[in-house]
Amino acid sequence: MLIQKASGGVADAFLFRVRKFKSQRMAAYRLVLIRHGESCWNQENRFCGWFDADLSEAGVQEAKRGGQALKDSGFEFDVCYTSVLQRAIRTLWLVLDGIDQMWLPVHRTWRLNERHYGGLTGLNKAETAARHGEAQVKVWRRSYDIPPPPMDAEHDLYSAISQDRRYRDLSKDQLPICESLKDTIARALPFWNEEIVPQIKEGKKVLIAAHGNSLRGIVKHLEDMTDEAIMNLNLPTGIPIVYELDKNLKPIKPMQFLGDEETVRKAMEAVAAQGKAKK
Amino acid sequence: MPKYKLFLLRHGEGAWNKENRFCSWVDQHLSEEGVKEAQQCGGLLKEQGYRLDAVFTSLLTRSIQTAWLVTQAMGDEWVPVLKSWRLNERHYGALIGLNRAELALNHGEEEVRLWRRSYDITPPPITESHPFFFDIYNDRRYLTCDVPLEELPRSESLKQVLDRLLPYWNNVIVPEIKKDRTVLISAHGNSCRALLKHIEGISDDDIVGVTLPTGIPILLELDSDLQPVKPHELLGNQVQIQNAIRKVEDQGKAKKTDT
Question: Where is the catalytic site (chain A) (predicted)?
């Protein structure tokens, strides 16, 4: 079992961060993040967002491998956090089963949900690029604070999402109809600060199973990254991401991935290839 | 008019259920059959149009696994799941791991029935020499309980199960029910029986005769004082239900084991 640092496309982004960690401080805490694996809609290359797509069979296997990687390294946790979307929850379940810790307390929150893609939800990424042009898609996907068009009441998925029981306790202000990455992070961080950080500081070993963009929020905050830097970071799926933190919750070294080199490299390349228009 | 809906569910078959051994606080996964039972239960609840708002389980994997499978079949994975030792199966003490049918051969069916089904007879306690003692008490989950490790039971009567279950029912589960949330309690044969005794006011004598089938959701409809408005209902195909009840009752009968 090898612990691999990120390689390939994000090497440059990492170099900057590696230099920041020159002085080795003591690890007071350890945190593990895991981004869920392939969903049925990822398979179809559709903007998923708040649509509650299930894991594909490949996504199930990714989660099992993630669990196996944690089991092989002997990880024990005290508390788990996840979103209210089944692809993250099932990923967590599969991991907990793999490490035989199904008894752990699990807290589910909409604040760890994936970014809400508004009116783009359900659209095939290639078709969207053909319809709006690659440049516009790039802006929506890559911009930090420009939201996609909102999901209005006419949208096919409006009632399935906005009126779902799981969001009944959200105020009108809280329930999004679209989000930029900035918006996603703005609603994820309060949960991180108010619920998760106190647990970490009590010495609880935390596992967070969530989505690409909600996890980007945590990573950006932990590593004090710029808006541009976080846009260039693609977290791999199904691969446990380990942070060692000092007593002020600053990482003492770059994030580490648990898994074999090939799995890590392949996953990162696959995410980077999405979104290009296909004829 | 019933005000609240509550589901009790006894988890399905685990490996030791198949071997007819007292599993109790030994932690096991469901068998393949047990997984199917949980999925069918979820499918049935979904088909009948029920939705859940909160789920409570014990700390034992088989009850948690059941809860996950049920909520997954219903599309309710987002529902909060709270876990407590206070919903654990009855602690069978020194009888843990022993085969029920062999016990019946050695001690008589009636004696075994009494241990299993009496209200206040406590089996002999588990001791350190028991093969599963450390499997249980060295497990990290029992460091997270609201009582210290050394105060957790070493053996229990059904009465003692209810005694440790009631504070959780009153302080944690009832407040959720009173918020008009549909609750599922995914637990074990005896923790479900104890709770049913309490809710329905079943006498100490009558509880002996109560057997709950596995994998069958038990619906309770309660008024605003949490009194049942009618007898509990076992949901599903009635023939299947009777077979399931008979299967559990047969576990206590003396059988020669295959050599």
Answer: 36 (tele-phosphohistidine intermediate), 114 (proton donor/acceptor)
Closest-CA distance of chain A to residue B153, Å: 19
Fold for the domain defined by B4-243: Rossmann fold (3.40.50)
Q: What is the DSSP string of B132-166?
A: THHHHHT-GGGGSSSS-GGGS-SS--HHHHHHHHH
pLDDT given at position B252: 59
Over residues B15-65, the pLDDT tens digits come to 787 778 889 999 999 999 999 999 999 999 999 999 999 999 999 999 999
pTM for this predicted structure: 0.90
Answer yes or no: A36 catalytic. Answer: yes
Taking the Cβ of residue B137 and every Cβ of chain A, the question of whether any pair is shorter than 8 Å is answered with no
Least Cα separation, residue A54 to chain B (angstroms):
10
Superfamily of domain A29-273: Phosphoglycerate mutase-like (3.40.50.1240)
pLDDT tens sequence across A112-132 = 999 999 999 999 878 788 878
Give me the residue from A89, A93, A165 closest to B51, CB to CB.
Answer: A165
Instruction: For residues B230 and B217, give the distance between their C-alpha atoms in angstroms, rounded to a whole number.
Output: 16
**A166 to B68: CB separation less than 8 angstroms, yes or no:** no
B60 touches chain A (CB under 8 A): yes
